[in-house]
Specification:
Strand content: under 5%
Number of helices: 3
Structural class: mainly alpha
Number of strands: 0
Distance between the termini: 73 Å
Radius of gyration: 25 Å
Largest sheet: none
Order of helices and strands: HHH
Length: about 90
Amino acid sequence: MFNLSWGTVDGCKWGTYLHGVFHNDAFRRSWLDGIRVEKGLKTLRNTYSSNVLKEQEFDRIAEVVHQHIDVKLSLSKYLVMCYYKKYRHSNLFV
């Protein structure tokens, strides 16, 4: 399967500089199952979609923000502040 000793003396470390390589659910499951087999454990064939899980969590966070923050008021105050910072040296605020 995998030669986990590649690149390390003790075979306990593995890394990648490829951003997102573990985002692929099938690859990640296969890679982890390879480690499980080398450790004498059974493979875990059931998997989940990390994209679905992330979207569910984003929706949950958005709902909490929506319940506890007046987004329209916060955004309007932010925009007024930005506008003021941009034009404060003009004669608009005299």
